[in-house]
Design the sequence.
C-alpha cells in the first residue's frame, strides 16, 4: 500500500498552506500566528572616540606606526574619561585601542633600540678590525 496523503482541505500547522488533494498550496486566507510585537531594548550608543581609538590602534600596526600608536593612546584615554562621565557604551573598545597603541609603541621602541645596538655593535667590531679608520687625535 502507498503513502497515505492528507485528505483535501487539510491546513498546515502554521495555517499558511492547505492540501488540495495533489499538493500543498498557499492559503488565500492564511493567518500568521499571532506574535506580539516587542520593540528591541534601546542600547546605549558606543562612544565615537573609543571606536576611533580602536581603529587607530589597528592601523598603527600596518600603516602609520608612531603617529597611529600615539593617537590610539590619546583617544583611548579621552574615550574612557568621556564614558565615565556620560555612561555610554564602548569602554572595551577604548581599552582595546589603548592596548594596541601601547603595545605598538613598546614593540616599535624595542625594535629601534635593537637596531641601534646591532648597528653600533657592527661599527665597534669593524673599528676593532681596523677596517674603519680611527679618528686621529691631532689634525
Sequence:
Amino acid at each position: 500500500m502507498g503513502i497515505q496523503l492528507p485528505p483535501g482541505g487539510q491546513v498546515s500547522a502554521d495555517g499558511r498552506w492547505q492540501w488540495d488533494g495533489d499538493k500543498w498550496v498557499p492559503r488565500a486566507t492564511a493567518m500568521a500566528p499571532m506574535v506580539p510585537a516587542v520593540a528591541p531594548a534601546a542600547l546605549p550608543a558606543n562612544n565615537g572616540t573609543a571606536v576611533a581609538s580602536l581603529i587607530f590602534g589597528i592601523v598603527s600596526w600596518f600603516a602609520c606606526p608612531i603617529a597611529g600608536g600615539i593617537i590610539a593612546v590619546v583617544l583611548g584615554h579621552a574615550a574612557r574619561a568621556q564614558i565615565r562621565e556620560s555612561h555610554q557604551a564602548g569602554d572595551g573598545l577604548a581599552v582595546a585601542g589603548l592596548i594596541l597603541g601601547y603595545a605598538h609603541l613598546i614593540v616599535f621602541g624595542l625594535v629601534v633600540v635593537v637596531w641601534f645596538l646591532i648597528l653600533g655593535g657592527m661599527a665597534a667590531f669593524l673599528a676593532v678590525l681596523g677596517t674603519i679608520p680611527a679618528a686621529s687625535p691631532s689634525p
